[in-house]
Amino acid sequence: MALAAPGRRPGEPRRVAYLYILPALLVFGLFVLVPLARTAQFSLYEWNGLGASTWAGLSNYRDLFTEPQLRGAFVHALVLVVFYAVVPVLLGLLLAAAMSRAVLRGMGFFRVVLFLPQVIPMVVVAIAWRQIYEPNGPLNDLLRFVGLDSLARPWLGDYTWALPSVGIVGTWVGTGLCLVLFLAGMSRIPRELYEAARLDGAGPLREFRAITLPSLRGELAVALTLTVIAALKTFDLVYVMTSGGPGTETTVPSYQVYNNAFLLGRVGIATALAVVLTLVVFVATVLINRVGERGQR
Amino acid sequence: MTLPIRRTRTALGAVAAIALLFAGCAPGDDGDDTEAGDAPTAGDVATDPSELGDITLTVWDQEVREGQTEQIEALNAAFEEAYPNITIERVARSTDDLRTTLRLALSGDDAPDVVQSNNGRPEMGQYVASGLLTPLDGYAEAYGWFDRFPESVRALASYSEDGANYGEGNLYGLPQMGEIVGLYYNKTKLAALGLEPPQTTEDFEAALQAAQAAGEVPIQFGNSEPWAGIHEFGFIQNQFSDAETIRNLGFGRPGSSWTSDDNVAAAQATRDWVDAGYFVDGFNGVSYDSAWQAFAQGTGVFFVGGTWLVADLTSAMGDEVGFVLPPAGASGQHLVTGGISIPWAIPANSDAKEAAAAYIDFITSSDAMTAVTEAGNLPVIEADQQTTTGLQSEVFAAWAQAGQEDLVVPYLDYATETFYDTITVAVQNLMAGQSDPQQFLETLEAEYTAATGS
């Protein structure tokens, strides 16, 4: 039995605790805090990544709002939030509600199939979908086969449809995750609650609104946090499927960070963009969790 | 779930402390400025690599297409056999991947010894300006490169020491292959239409019409990796504008204008050809590789492409494919975009520069030019001394004609550090009808005038 230091109640924090977390703190500092601080510092300079740099103050940040291409990237990210987060959560809820009510044979199988997109590396997903969207790919073949020739188009080369096309892949990937989360949440809701509700004469919709939805608040917050972050920092899908094109229709902040830092040699702009993106993700996460917590009280 | 205030404060303090660590240390200012001033003079270059001791030579290249890999691997093996004291460590990447990783690699202390660095202001020009590449003039004198490589070839890899002027000054790279973006055509299909390879823009437009009437795809094209658009628009511009104009615009030199009548005509023709349906449907959604593969499999009468596809297309199509210079339009000349393949350069931070120079000399020697030819490619010099058949001989003839008549004009993205981004987006917009020719040209003109101050 270790002796408690005099005058200290057991369980009270002691300085020595810092020693225990030191290794983790060092790694965290070295690989997260230091790069973050460096990034923030770079964003105040005009630098091509090679030679000397010049102090630029906040002008890089101003450019983010004045250059239409950079501003556009954030608008596209917001559109993607709908496809990556809003739609998957709604679809996930609907599917989960349906699946938990019906007694389905081979339930495990369906769950696995719907979750599968989560497991496949994004680059593989992107390449597969790029093939599907090709002008003579399966999607257009299907449309032509059923006589909808007028709908067939080069999906990823179309100025109107390229961004939604990328977004739908996000929906396809995200829905499985939401579904599995919600199913797990629903399985914890006591059956008695539903029985009581039914005795009181509640229909399926009422049941869903009064019992299922409030009980899933925690899962909803988690699902939204994960999918919104995924939407805001999308890179791989855009990089592989469209390179930001056609024109600049599918550029997103992460892609612009890469493009500016490694291709255009505008490291200042790229890092400013990265800082803003980090802040946006941070604020979005805090907001979602606040809303999630408030309901629990 | 809020953090106790004390802990938040500690975290903030830590961030502040880290920030302080960097105060006064601006990015890019590492204190070890290895200026490119340590360039050798001819006298003290050791041209016998076997006397250099044991060396590991790190080489970054992008020779990954069929024919290119083959020849570079053969040359590497021959080099190692000739000089057993030198071991080559080859890092092969696609052009795009090399482009993104080179920037970091060059500025690091542990830089590779030989790299392929794309010519033009967006890449090599920036590296030269930052003192990251070694001027090769001393080696060039020692190895006789000035005699073997004509001025026109060397100019494409020459910059002033501050990187401001392109096309003159020190030599910073040596290419292995020549490169022109010409017109591939499907011989069977063109013969079925009863046509000869087009010599003039009029011929070409007539051929496109005939192909379309026969239910063929006139021009196969894929622009989802948007750099292909630079080649496609260049191909059209070459038929409307004169060499002087295109060179000024391409090299980023003052004296010309994107909004001149000839360029307006070129942009208008591009739009008209799209509207007429001469390009394959949905080209903005087709990748470059899918496009030439579709052409190889018989979809499309014409394909605008570079000589880097010779080996691939020969093995896919055999005698069915032909190659000619772009048709002559208003200028009356068969101007052709191109010049040299991505040149081989020596980073300033290399620790084995002499061995690197010996390696570059080896892979550009006369024997190497033969090896390049045998692997199906176009050697940058001494092409007339090689024996070739089929598609390759047509390409060699076009290259020879381009050299004799001074027809080669630069890639348009060479112009400024960010012109690659500007023109790829602009061409996609133009060809998709998102911008009209006037807007297209004004976008390019704005960046050109801002950079050249004209």
Automatic annotation (TrEMBL), chain A:
Tell me, in one coarse class, where this protein mainly resides: membrane
User: Could you name the domain of life of the organism this protein comes from?
Assistant: Bacteria
Task: Give the location in the cell.
Answer: Cell membrane
Q: Give a Gene Ontology cellular component term annotated to this protein.
A: plasma membrane
Which GO BP terms sit in this record? transmembrane transport
InterPro entries xref list: ABC_transporter_permease, MetI-like, MetI-like_sf
Q: Which UniProt keywords apply?
A: Cell membrane, Membrane, Transmembrane, Transmembrane helix, Transport
Q: Does the keyword Transmembrane helix apply?
A: yes
Indicate the family of this protein.
Belongs to the binding-protein-dependent transport system permease family.
Protein name per its UniProtKB record: Sugar ABC transporter permease
Q: Which species is this UniProt entry from? A: Jiangella rhizosphaerae
Automatic annotation (TrEMBL), chain B:
Keyword match Cytoplasm: no
Question: What domain of life does the native source organism fall in?
Answer: Bacteria
- Coiled-coil region(s) at which residues? none
**Disordered: region residues:** 31-50
Q: Is Lyase a UniProt keyword of this protein?
A: no
Q: Which UniProt keyword terms apply here?
A: Signal
**What start and end residues bound the annotated signal peptide?**
1-28
Q: Which Pfam families match?
A: SBP_bac_1
Q: What is this protein called?
A: Extracellular solute-binding protein
